[in-house]
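To close the chapter, one final illustration. This time we ask the reader to focus less on the individual chains and more on the assembly as a whole: which components sit near each other, and how the overall shape emerges from the parts.
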Amino acid sequence: MSTNTQTVTVGAPAETRAKRRPQLSEGARAERRLGWMLCAPAVLVMIAVTAYPVGYAIFLSLERYNLELPQAIKFVGLSNYGAVLSSPFWWKALVVTVIITAFSVAITLVLGMLLATVLNRTLFARGTVRTISLIPYGIVTVAAAYSWQFAWTPSQGYLSSAFNNSAPLTNQVQAIIVIIIAEIWKTTPFMGLLLLAGLSLVPEDLQKAAMVDGATAWQRFTRITLPLMKPAILVALLFRTLDSFRIFDNIYILTGGNNGTGSVSILGYDNLFNALNLGIGSAISILIFIAVAIIAVVFIKGFGTAAPGTDIGRR
Amino acid sequence: MAANTPRQWASWGTANLVVIALALIPVLWLVSLSFKTPTAVLDPSYFPAQWTWGNYSGILKTSQFIRPLINSIGIGLIATFIAVVLASMAAYAIARLRFPGKSVLIGMALLIAMFPQISLVTPMFTIERALGLFNTWPGLIIPYVAFGLPLGIYTLSAFFREIPWELEKAAKVDGATPFQAFIRVIAPLAAPGMVTTAILVFLFCWNEFLLAISLTSTTASRTAPASIAYFSGSSQFSVPTGPIAAAAVVITIPIIIFVVFFQRRIVAGLTSGAVKG
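The assembled structure is written out below.
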């Protein structure tokens, strides 16, 4: 709705200004200076907190650096990476992370689509239903994770007693399923809201016309709704995938990474705070950073996801 | 929408009830646990047989929870304030001004929005210990501002683009400098967007866990979610279920209040950043 008006109003002055651009009048130069000045603080903070530490992490990852052996700090080249990449712990953690990411994102997408449809077609108390469905998004992940943990504790939790007093958190596969359920519960509202916003861009006339032409509900969904929602779906998927790949809180509370349920983030945390090994921990950090970068590039180049915000630049 | 038959009413109504039930059951379970007596905690029934305020009075008496709660509120508010101020400056520039390097800034914000926090833990731990920031409020506020900024820049630039451009021009014609035009004309119009952004950034800070447990070591700066993970029972092997549930409910209440009062704003903010672009 507002998207159209916004393009029109902002488009016009941008054109006129583009024509004036080569001369770079006093006003344009002042505008340019002001632009830089206004952005500088934000840029500085973002660089100070991310680029600089990552650079430092690369440096640390090339050293043998254990806090327990401060005398033994030594430059060792890529051998930390060799140690991580040849360790079964890294690969197990990576597989666990990929499984949790793949299942939770796929199921969240389907459930988010259902939620968006329900919210879109709600006949009464639309605001109330939307508010309540937002609670899982807002609730602190740690609080939610405790709710799931206690629910699955034998002789204590309602879910455990409903399933024959089982103890799923002590079994690798079952624990991963519980972690995935906790992830899905927490993130479906976010997915649903993003998809709902995409759904509202699908013109109702088009749906009605297809209905008149005799298209079934499923045909309308796959032929009209899905293609029109593709950009919204891809952006939602990109965000969810990267977020899920970083999973930490849920696993930390639910299993502490025991019984082969640790994600790569848990592995990195353990290497720093339990093994106090800064060199190996940094190598893991950098490898996770590379994995996340690969996922982002695959989404943006491979699926043609418009990176959110890219059209701000064009305007 | 087309006329709805009673059957459609019934099926969409059921769907609504399912959504509400699925969203609330885990939350109500936590509430129910928090009211159970220490012995009844070992009873798997969903509702407590006997209600008690004991868990709440217990956690509100110890500095193990009160201090982290104060930390959470203080760190969250300060980080939110700084992030919203810096993000509105940058978003204003992105939405309104023409200057080279704009797309670099947007790309950078996007990168940071996707940044894996674990990659920061090791270097930040080392850097903050060297600078004396480890286990202090600024030690958490600074990274929270940095991660709040991309969210703020996206949401705010989406809001800023909808503000009528002519008003700013009119102010400039009346002799206002670009800075005055920003403070006097645009900022009041942008207030709703800034409130939305502030809520989203605060929710992020309130929720954050990985950095909160990694960059703190005592209750001097540990936030509430992190402190719950350090609750200990009367013996090493007993989990203090009741107090944990009560603490979890206490940190959830502000969120529910936010969601109830600002539902529309939260939805607008979440979707403006991601879908509209």
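The beta strands of chain A are 63-64, 74-75. The mean pLDDT of chain A is 82. With these observations in hand, you are ready for the problems at the end of the chapter.
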